[in-house]
User: Which sequence fits this backbone?
């Protein structure tokens, strides 16, 4: 008998000795980090108030109780019982019964009302229906991504359970080594921005943190061929800090190369990764490049995702516990905290962070039980990388909009679909509501609408006050009338271009393709209109060239010819809307960090930024700091 | 056709276009780093003066020409021809004909006379006999190690050729990667003395430098399980800097774990490694420990050795050239210089070094075409690790000997078999020759005699003036009459103990076992005798305890009882005979190094020594210095 089976047998014994004798446990197994307990008496389990909580605390595991399939109430009967229990105001839109596991997925507009105070409604559901409920939110704005991911996972439910069981057994395997060490290997994003990727390893375990692309490079991939990462199927777990492509683009590639394990991320990160990586493949195909993997691999990745919520302490290996904390950067972005061994060592990877609160998100969490080493982003770590205060930036943006409106022109804003667009939507919606700028249509083109829909599906991940507003449908700012989703293609764009003054948010954010190209063609020649850059424009992009004053741009003419278009619109830049902490924010993050780490690795920034920041943190806080190169391995402990 | 075969075909074409039309080349192949050219016309090849040299320089390869086996002169006929050519004073002791390769191994007391001026005699041998000669020295003192190794290699000749051919094809494989980097991973001997081991890697190649044990530990092995070293059969080459067990003990273990490639070392290192690792297994067995590998693995290691001479620039991988330089530490010890890529990067591993000349060896070489990074030993790198000048130490030793002689006592010196013993033999021989101490017997017990025999087999590796003396038999100091090899066991020891005043050199050097234990029993109780420590006594050894004043030692009584023996002899310590550079020597090595490296990794010393030295080199020479931990990976370039 394997040691995991022995362990499960012992756990079943413990459970049986703790529960009332009238409750029968038929099976105990691992599914990913959870312990699943099958019982013939799910209703009694649910009646015994905090029994599950007590067991969880005794066994120090997350526990899910499921009815043994043999005793399952027929779905029709269960449906009636469930509909009886859930108040109508919860707005249930779907009930999905899984007879193999006795779970019922309840999709509702107000999940909180399905859960009830301290889970009381959920328990009532089990008591009355005998099924184990799982609640998801009905997207307030329909999202094809969320729908596709949910349908896909439903379809792959059986295989997913096999995957989770395998992962669960891996996590709970016996520790083999007597050595003690913690190592971090840099596979990318050191002295460069892009291709974030690290290996965190102990004698037992290898964890890959992020696996992104490098924008502006010719397909540079993280150093996955490094021995520290090989063979790829020896990696225990992949942790994805957030969905931006410079962190996620090559996650699906791992499955092509033989990785077959779990991906830990938040639920919105999973969905956004799906959206962004599929778009990444699309763009590659459109540009005539061979995509590095097929869309099938994106599905593999999604199938292997194990979503975690902020604050959940989760076993992901025999000697590693992972906890995500809000990073304030984009939806679902996470500071990833690893607790290694039993009190042995703690490492936090910041991922990308925003230290101050923004309209969308609370500021990054920097409060941990313990942390000895911090791996920290340094995008704006340079000695002069201070950004304009967002309040001032908003004032400037509003002025520019008002000026343009007076000339009856249009404001064209190239923006990244995920994060910056939603922040701007909030700025613009408020400005109109408060009368700072005239109410006019705000057209959203490219993936912005879809990304916004995903934001509204996961309001728990947004800033407290925004979340509260979204919970009350009539205050959900993303549902404001001004917002118009451009879904009528080129025709709609031409209508808009010929129409009244308006604001247009369109991808791509660096003017490297996508619908912004059409908008430039339609709006660019108009001297009364204006383009406003709100995000970083990388060297070599058309955005950077326009920003620098170029007033002629190539557009695709008929028959493969390239024509040149004269730009007459005004061009302005408003900084201060970045999703990244600036130099001050990075220093503040470390200054107020509790506890303060002993060592900091400054990564995810160009050579100057990482070295400036490393040196500043050393001098200011007297900690050991490093600006590593790619392909180095640090040993801690 | 593989790229190596293509390459060989092109090389054969080139050779054929360079040589006179009457010379036929039948085959060209790689054997290890050498290119072997088979010809039907070996005599003509030899007649054409510097043809081989010209080809070697054109092809930039080391070239050996061998007669095609089809045209081989019968051995009897060849023997007569060879004996005709070689002058009698050369003292040929053996001719060994290998019909498979057309090579004849000539063992002679004076190899120089077989070689002739610029190899003229060798060429004459080929011209007259049609065979390719290879010359080895007849050991002036019979060495069972040298004899065994030579016989073994003769016996395994066929398999060895297969190994060499495989290695040769590996070395000359096509380069695959477009990346450029150089990495060093520390597998041992960082912030500790012992278990020296490093991985030097490039995108193409992995090289393991040393693989030693850690004396005084409970079998601590280098971190061979590190991913940077795995799988072991992905390692291209093992480089052994010298034969001491803290560098060599686990070289044979590699073959047990699946390594199957070449070991580059000097010829004396190969033989001494054989001697020391077999003894290591013996000691383990005697002490009731399970040896980590079997003696069969030592033979595997020897079979895979490719001996290099100091100064030979040798291709050991598609992108790596290795050159050994004298390190001054023990016989055959080498500073190992790696030239990576075509002028890309250069790394030197000091191994263990002695910077000043000693009686046995010239001081370590620190003159290289280029070197960016130095990995340097730090045994005596601590801020106070200055040693007594050897001249003063010799004076003190002679005084102690004279005092003891006057009391008619005996001088007992525990000594390491390899290196320190021979240095002392030279000191004592000279002192007697010059009348500084009375002439008396010097008894050599343990492996000292055998190690000395190996020294005399390879005089090329000794200090210039000593080498010259050994070439003249009547001046070979190791053949002096005073030296007596204790080969009569306990009986002889008892006779010596009861006899006239004398000096006894015996292993083990730290009094942890071996014949020194008997000597203590016989000589220890005599108040007129004296023990003199000349080497480092590690914490926890009996040597250290006696040195610190303990005057009772446990001896094995009959029937498993332990009895205690009262020591009445005087106990003294004379330092200054170390094989390691002291702090001054280490600094001098770097100060006079040409060119001076940009970076230094201070290793092979305890935490304090490596950090002291690292800090001193940084402050003194303004270079980047490190005192790494085990299991770190540095990236250069």
Assistant:
């Amino acid at each position: 008998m394997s040691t995991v089976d022995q362990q499960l047998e012992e756990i079943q014994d413990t459970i049986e000795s703790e529960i009332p004798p009238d409750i029968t446990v038929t099976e105990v197994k691992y599914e990913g980090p959870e312990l699943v307990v099958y019982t013939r008496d799910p209703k009694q389990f649910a009646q015994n108030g905090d029994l599950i909580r007590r067991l969880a605390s005794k066994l120090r595991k997350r526990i899910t109780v499921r009815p043994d399939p043999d005793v399952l109430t027929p779905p029709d009967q269960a449906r009636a019982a469930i509909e009886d229990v859930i108040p109508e105001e919860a707005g249930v839109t779907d009930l999905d019964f899984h007879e193999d596991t006795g779970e019922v997925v309840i999709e509702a507009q107000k999940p909180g009302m399905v859960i009830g105070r301290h889970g009381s409604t959920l328990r009532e559901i089990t008591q009355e229906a005998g099924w184990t409920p799982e609640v998801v939110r009905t997207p307030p704005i329909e999202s094809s991504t969320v729908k596709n991911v949910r349908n896909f996972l439903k379809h792959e439910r059986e295989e997913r359970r096999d995957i989770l069981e395998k992962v669960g057994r891996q996590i709970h395997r016996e520790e083999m080594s007597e050595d003690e060490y913690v190592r971090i290997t840099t596979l990318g994003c050191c002295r460069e921005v892009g291709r974030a990727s690290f290996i965190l390893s102990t004698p037992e375990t290898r964890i890959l943190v992020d696996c992104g692309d490098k924008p502006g490079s010719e397909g540079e991939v993280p150093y996955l061929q490094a021995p520290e990462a090989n063979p790829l199927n020896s990696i225990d777990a992949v942790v994805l800090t957030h969905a931006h492509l410079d962190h996620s683009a090559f996650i699906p590639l791992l499955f092509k190369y033989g990785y077959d394990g779990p991906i830990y991320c938040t639920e919105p990160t999973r969905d956004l990764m799906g959206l962004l990586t599929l778009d990444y493949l699309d763009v590659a195909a459109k540009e005539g490049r061979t995509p590095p993997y097929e869309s099938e691999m994106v599905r593999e990745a999604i199938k292997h995702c194990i979503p975690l919520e902020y604050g959940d302490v989760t076993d992901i290996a025999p000697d590693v516990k992972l906890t995500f904390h809000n990073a304030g950067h984009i939806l679902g972005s996470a500071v990833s905290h690893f607790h290694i061994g039993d009190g042995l060592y703690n490492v936090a990877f910041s991922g990308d962070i925003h230290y101050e609160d923004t309209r969308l998100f609370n500021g990054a969490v920097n409060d941990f039980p313990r942390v000895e080493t911090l791996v920290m982003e340094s995008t704006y770590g340079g000695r002069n990388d201070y950004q304009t205060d967002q309040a001032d930036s908003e004032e400037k943006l509003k002025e520019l909009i008002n000026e343009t409106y007076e000339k009856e022109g249009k404001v064209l804003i190239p923006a990244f679909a995920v994060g910056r667009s939603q922040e701007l939507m909030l700025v613009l919606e408020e400005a109109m509501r408060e009368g700072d700028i005239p109410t006019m249509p705000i057209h959203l083109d490219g993936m912005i609408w879809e990304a916004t829909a995903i934001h509204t599906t996961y309001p728990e991940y947004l800033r407290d006050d925004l979340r509260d507003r979204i919970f009350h449908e009539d205050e959900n700012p993303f549902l404001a009338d001004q917002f118009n989703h451009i879904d009528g293609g080129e025709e709609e764009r031409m209508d808009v271009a010929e129409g009244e003054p308006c604001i247009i948010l369109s991808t791509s954010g660096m003017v490297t393709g996508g619908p912004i190209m059409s908008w430039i063609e339609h709006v660019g020649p108009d001297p009364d209109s204006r383009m406003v850059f709100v995000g970083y424009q990388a060297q070599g992009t058309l955005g950077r060239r326009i920003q620098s004053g170029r007033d002629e741009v190539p557009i695709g003419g008929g028959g493969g010819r390239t024509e040149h278009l004269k730009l007459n619109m005004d061009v302005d830049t408003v900084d201060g809307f970045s999703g990244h902490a600036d130099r001050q924010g990075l220093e503040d993050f470390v200054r107020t960090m509790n506890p303060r780490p002993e060592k900091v690795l400054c990564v995810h920034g160009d050579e100057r930024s990482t070295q400036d920041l490393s040196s500043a943190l050393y001098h200011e806080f007297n900690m050991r700091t490093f600006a590593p190169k790619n392909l180095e391995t640090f040993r801690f402990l």
